[in-house]
Amino acid sequence: MPTRTLRNEFTLPVPARAVFDHVRDPRSYVGLSPPVVAVSDIQPADGGFRYRAVERVPIVRRWTYDNPLRITLFGDGDGPFVVHGDVASNGGVHVDYRYDIADEGAGCRVIDVVTLRTPFGLTGFAASRARAVQQGRPAVLARRLVGD
Fold first, then answer.
1. Looking at residues 123-131, what average pLDDT do you find?
2. What span, in angstroms and rounded, lies between the C-alpha atoms of 73 and 50?
3. What's the maximum distance between 2 C-alpha atoms anywhere in the chain?
4. Which of 8, 30, 37, 64 has its CA 20 to 30 A from that of 57?
5. Are 110 and 19 in contact (CB under 8 A)?
């Protein structure tokens, strides 16, 4: 399976604990990852969570496919903070993700790393969608945690 790793580093004018608390909550991913339109079946698991989500994938024009996802999410809240987990979806696409979150100056620095493992032929599509979500995440977090 081809693998691609994407990295985005950014700062936010809020404490690291606020970002950690937000990205450690499975319900936060509706809109934080814009293709995710629903989160359900949240179960505690080994200090983290296992849950299901639905990713709405555009197909053609107004047609979409609601892709079911199985997600694990774990977080270390002792600082610097780490949130990590994995996503399994139909079609054989697997995503490992990690946020390293540390206080810096009057705010915090976030390192967002996504590693995709995809079947041949899906790597470019999956990477372009994951990169767009990753690059949009700082603005979504800023709106949610700082306000307009």
1. 91
2. 6
3. 46
4. 8
5. yes
Q: Compute the distance between CA of residue 54 and CA of residue 69 in angstroms, rounded to an integer.
A: 6
| Residue given tokens 């307009």 in the structure block | 148
CA distance 97 to 72: 10
CA distances from 99 to 11, 16, 78, 84, 105 (A): 12, 11, 14, 6, 19
Model confidence pLDDT, tens digit, residues 8-49: 999 999 999 999 999 999 999 999 988 899 999 999 998 899
If DSSP codes are grouped into helix, strand and coil, which group holds residue 31?
helix
- Residue 127 CA to residue 118 CA, distance in Å, equals 9
Mean local confidence (pLDDT), 119-125: 89
